[in-house]
């Protein structure tokens, strides 16, 4: 159905926008932590805490969209009219989520570990130790959930490819796929 394809596009757009924002905030957090370690200013401390709150919000939005993507992905037959287009969007989505998993969440995790480490010697940050630990746990859980979603997207792509009769399209698609097509 066209409706499910449009929902897929909407989810892709939401995920893309949120991941871009999340990436920028991680870069900002890195700069803030570096500056805070050097200068120990109250304003930098407040900006770090605010940025962490924004990252937490981004993770919630990403998780919400991953749940929606999972619902859409369970309806393989609903893409019959737009199979080729759906395959393209799913590949782009897989690439984005793979980037999120490999780069963004890994960097966020490292930065949170740095904050935990420096909080041991810093009374200002020490009060947020439990918050940092909770955020670390959230990042690990999102990464784990993301791995399942990535596998589901691969399976959906695998199922949709079976419905495409255009051999030329399939050959080109598999060549340009964002992940190894060995398991397809």
Account of the protein in words:
The protein is an all-alpha fold and 184 residues long. It has one domain: Methane Monooxygenase Hydroxylase, Chain G, domain 1 (Up-down Bundle). It has helices at 2-39, 42-73, 83-119, 123-126, 129-161, 167-176. Helix 1 (2-39) packs parallel to helix 3 (83-119) and helix 3 runs antiparallel to helix 5. The longest helix is centred in the N-terminal third of the chain and has 38 residues, at 2-39.
Look at the structure and give the CATH class: Mainly Alpha
Gyration radius from CA atoms, angstroms: 20 Å
Mean pLDDT: 90
Residues in β-strands, percent: under 5%
User: Which sheet architecture does the biggest sheet show?
Assistant: none
Strand segment count:
0
**Could you name the CATH topology?**
Methane Monooxygenase Hydroxylase, Chain G, domain 1
Task: Give the oligomeric state of the chains in this entry, treating copies of one chain as homo and distinct chains as hetero.
Answer: single chain
How many structural domains? 1
Q: Which structural class best describes the helix and strand composition? A: mainly alpha
CATH architecture: Up-down Bundle
Q: Distance between termini?
A: 24 Å
Q: Which bin fits the share of residues in helices?
A: over 70%
Number of helices: 6
